[in-house]
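Entry 12.
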Amino acid sequence: MALTSIIAHRIYRHSPGSAFELQLRDEAFASDGKLEELAYELKTQFIRKGGKSYGRFSDELGEFPLPAWLRDYHEERLSFISFTHKAMQQFQQALEKAESLLDAYVFFVEEKLEIGDTLNVYLVEHQNGLYLDGELTMDDSLFLDTSGFNLAAKIQLNDWTSGDSNTYLTLMRSRSDKDIADAFTQFIAFTDKQDIKQETAEFLQIVDNFSQTLDETTAKITRTKVVDYCLEQNKAGKPVTIAALSSNLAEEVKSYEPERFVRYVENSKPDLKPEFIPHAGQIRSYVRISGRNDSLSMSFASECLGREIEYDAANDVLTIKNLPSSLKARLIKHLKESH
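Predicted 3D structure (tokens):
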């Protein structure tokens, strides 16, 4: 990881009705291996977790001053330490109406990456644990819960400063006390939640329509490459850009011109956003259909539907042909043993 700066501050309230208090660190952490491991673990867990919304900073700077302070820091009118101190004071103010108790650490982690600089903010709490010391005596300790945090934000700084994106801010708030989560959202100045499921569904319908203009082999390759590209972007926390996807398809399918897919999108649905955040679950289900209950689990390639697999919706019956040989052998064996 190319860490530029990392610092943590404490915010806490231990009794109902009392004010939230701050314990602010005066200097950034000196970079070392342990610190990089911590930052990497937080980043990895953020990517894996659900509960994300995608949007941008609010324009109401009077009520949400964080973006103004961040710009001052980015343009070197404010130091990193001063920026994080102001941010923590804003978080403290946002928590005034909260009733929950809290004792947590807010990490500000700045990275310089090839794909663009980012600032990540994580709300991390301590966890209790037991260990055996050198004399095999049981003792307890505290450790940072780098996998259990529920509130975080990621700002793609280059996308923000260029003004070319409306989804440069990612907010994660899952399974948290609502009043704490609301205060964190206000502190981050997040707005414009994106309906990524709907946007992904519209995009996949276009891919489906486009595939129908191709021969069967090319259509299959196209759908697979679309899914691979979208999942790679999702894993990296980056949006899918239609123009970049079109170029990517042209590299994989030599009969394509680089602009073929992007032209199709512009002609068939000109109001589609040129970039969007993909919904990973819908992308995966585009090439695979799966489901399970207490006694049955099933997954198959979506292209099998209507060929090897037929579904009678009226009678709720699924018919499967050309069973995998290993499954067929186990079924025959089971039938013989049960008679």
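Annotation: Residues 196-283 form one domain. The radius of gyration is 25 Å.
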